[in-house]
Design brief:
Length: 742
């Protein structure tokens, strides 16, 4: 990765949205968790223990947060010890989601550590009788006139500091953080903290936990989403050697055993002994667009700008409809959790959930327990970038652990469990129309988006007695299967779900966005990386290419003509230059395509140039990605996030879709739900525009929509035919060719 020179940025870029703040400009996470001791502790062993409510899910967030802490404390990053999140001692920062961790937790840590440094210097000043502003700090050593007089760890040995008294205060917004001009650690490519363990195979994940008395559980799933248990003869399974218990509650079935292999075989036997009612409740997959656009829904105008005079200048109208299928998270490793009903009356859970406080609230509600009697510890697990099976596996473990109180129970999902039972990213249909004036400028824009909601996570905000969003909770009622709760949609004020990025970031004088959020749930849906932005950006950027073609204008020039934000234009121009836009691609079956968006219209900027080869299948050969995240705390980490996001989006574009018949999910493994293979991964070049004086913006989700759109546009350039249905498989391409007679 090569950084683009800062001089390339516009002289007066528009301000990015500030970090979420509360009274007196305090970062929102500090408003919710004002006690300084909840964030960090200086230990006498020469380290600083730092807590955050955000969790590591493979995105490298703990490394970037460690850099922020080290920067403000003036210590070597090697001294920072990032403590895994838990509900007992750590700050409650809600979900690790939405590419908001640096913006929220980073802002909170920056100010908390700045205050901690000031408190330590004030303590040294009192001890030494010297004004605090005369000290300098290097790696925690406090010097006066070049001579080290004390250090953080000596002070930590003092009872006042070591007992937590020094940091047992609330945050003081009057203490300033560093100026970006003084940064020495932030803005550098610090190696990831989590990679050495993962490369060497050292135990790190929840599935690696070895606790005293650990036993193993397996859950037997129904054969279809709407099925319920009719009968089961569990006695032969209970009598198997090594089986500790069989749990039968409503349609929830599970086994516990001393050894994992015994649990697996016992679960298989229990599955054979179960009989289920399996109603056909799923739509016809071949008519999914018709289902989405005709199903009951809540319809609302979620974005609008009215300029009747501009709209009246339209001399022609262009329309198109685009479709994205249901997508699985398809985590390489299935979900896992450990739970123990301890002898002291506390329920302890180890989980890779992205929202441990929300999960704790949901467990308290469904179990009718005080939340204080439940402690959740985050342990790394399969990456999901969204709501996969982590929370559901945790509840499975909790239910099975009740049968063996005092002993921890590990529940490991199977590949079939993960593919068939995790919440999916919603399918979506996007219908667009635009009016062009006599100068071929867009003067009006209309968008309708149909989709299920994008949030079905366990929630702390539900009223007592509210239906639980945990998978097994719907199985506990004898004789029936409780319906899947309707997925909520994320409000546009929080970035939107169905409507995320549905309002184009182009300068259109007159536009109207209507969201149709389905109120029926044939499949359980929830958050998947970028939420509705993938479908919406795919549609918008494909349509921009179609409009450019209708106007007879180069697609990049057409975009630039409709952009007024200098940072947007800078990213588009840089990607076009670096991606070889306008130069020959070579070969009749090759094409080059472009995609651009600003994530949520308030977050990171991303432009992508894709080069594809479309013969018997679509192969993406190269992706050129240019990103602007404001201040890149760890530029290498930012580049890695954009590269990973682009590769995942490539898999969505050319391979992935959840398959089902009228009764059940049929894509239960890697054969029926193929993802991109290592041999198919394109070359990815990422350039990051570093803007030290701009607020940091999240990186993880911004590449998804632009990458999918760039690939779709490249395929259209290669074939001369527009494919509007994802994924870009031979099956969908041939269907389009048959429809169009090409």
């Amino acid at each position: 990765m090569t950084q683009i020179d800062r001089q390339a940025q516009p002289a007066n870029p528009p301000a990015s949205p500030a970090e979420p703040t509360g009274p007196a400009g305090i970062p929102a996470s500090l408003v919710a968790n004002p006690g300084l001791s909840r964030w960090l502790r200086v230990d006498p062993d020469g380290t600083v223990a730092v807590r955050t409510g955000k969790v590591e899910i493979g995105q490298g967030i703990l490394t970037a947060l460690a850099q922020i802490a080290a920067e403000e404390l003036d210590v070597d990053p090697a001294r920072i010890r990032m403590v895994p999140a838990d509900t007992a001692d750590g700050p409650d920062e809600g979900l690790t989601a939405g590419s908001m961790s640096i913006q929220r937790s980073g802002a909170a840590l920056r100010h908390a550590c700045a205050q901690a440094r000031a408190l330590l210097l004030d303590t040294a000043a009192r001890r030494l009788g010297v004004p605090a502003d005369r000290f300098t700090v290097s790696d925690g050593a406090i010097a006066l006139d070049g001579a080290v007089r004390t250090d953080y760890w000596t002070l930590a040995g003092d009872a006042e500091v070591g007992a937590g008294g020094l940091f047992d205060v609330e945050f003081d917004p009057a203490v300033p953080a560093k100026s970006p001009a003084d940064y020495r650690v932030v803005g550098t490519a610090l190696p990831r903290l989590d990679i050495p363990d993962k490369v060497s195979g050292r135990p790190r994940f929840v599935s690696d936990l070895t606790l005293p008395g650990l036993v193993y559980g397996r859950v037997v799933r129904p054969p279809s989403p709407a099925a319920w248990l009719s009968t089961v003869d569990a006695d032969p399974v209970r009598s198997r050697p090594g089986v500790l218990a069989v749990v039968c509650q409503g349609s929830f079935l599970g086994v516990l055993a001393e050894r994992e292999a015994v649990a697996v075989t016992a679960a298989a036997a229990l599955r054979e002994a179960a009989r289920w009612e399996t109603p056909a409740t799923l739509p016809d997959q071949t008519g999914l667009t018709d289902f989405l656009t005709s199903a009951p829904s809540e319809t609302a105008v979620t974005g609008e700008r009215v300029d009747a005079a501009a709209a009246a200048r339209a001399v022609r109208t262009v329309s198109a409809t685009y479709h994205k299928p249901f997508l699985a998270h398809a985590s390489i490793g299935p979900s896992c959790a450990v739970a123990c009903w301890r002898d002291d009356g506390v329920l302890a859970v180890w989980t890779h959930s992205q929202g441990i406080f929300g999960l704790r609230a949901a467990l308290a509600r469904v179990l009718d327990l005080p939340a204080e009697r439940i402690v959740l510890h985050h342990a790394e697990g399969p990456g999901s970038y969204g709501h996969n099976g982590a929370d559901d596996a945790a509840f499975d473990a909790v239910l099975l652990a009740r049968a063996v109180p005092g002993r921890p129970v590990m529940v490991q999902w199977s590949r079939q469990d993960e593919h068939a039972w995790e919440p999916y990213g919603p399918a979506a249909t996007v219908r667009l129309s635009a009016g062009l004036d006599a100068d071929d400028r867009v003067v009006s824009w209309r968008a309708d988006v149909w989709s299920n909601g994008h949030s079905n996570r366990p929630s702390r905000g539900a009223a007592p007695g509210a239906v639980s969003r945990l998978l097994a909770a719907g199985l506990l009622t004898p004789g029936r299967r409780d319906p899947t709760p309707v997925a909520a949609d994320v409000p546009m004020a929080s970035g939107g779900g169905t409507g995320r990025n549905a309002i184009p970031c182009y300068d259109f004088a007159d536009y109207r966005l209507v969201s149709h959020v389905l109120t029926v749930m044939p499949l359980r849906t929830s958050s998947l990386r970028a939420l509705g932005a993938t479908a919406n950006v795919f549609a918008i950027e494909s349509f921009m290419d179609e409009l450019a073609a209708a106007a007879g204008v180069d697609p990049v020039e057409f975009r630039l003509a409709h952009l007024v934000d200098p940072r947007s234009a800078a990213v588009v121009q840089a990607a076009a230059r670096l991606g070889g836009w306008g130069s020959p691609v070579g070969g009749d079956s090759r094409g080059r395509g472009f995609g651009f968006a600003r994530y949520k219209n308030t977050g990171a900027y991303c432009a992508v140039v894709a080069e594809v080869e479309a013969t018997h299948e679509v192969r993406v050969r190269r992706l050129t990605v240019v990103a602007d995240v404001g201040l890149a705390v760890n530029p290498d980490g930012v580049a890695n996030q954009f590269e990973g996001g682009a590769i995942q989006a490539t898999s969505w574009a050319v391979r992935e879709q959840v398959r089902f018949d009228r009764t059940r999910i049929t894509s239960e493994d890697w054969e029926t739900y193929p993802i991109l293979r290592f041999s198919e991964v394109p070359a990815v070049d990422v350039e990051v525009i570093q803007r030290l004086d701009e607020p940091s913006l999240g990186a993880g989700e911004a590449a998804a929509g632009p990458t999918v759109a760039a690939i779709a546009n490249a395929v259209a350039a290669a074939l001369g035919v527009r494919i509007r249905d994802l994924p870009l498989t031979p099956e969908n391409i041939l269907a389009t060719l048959d429809r169009t007679g090409t």
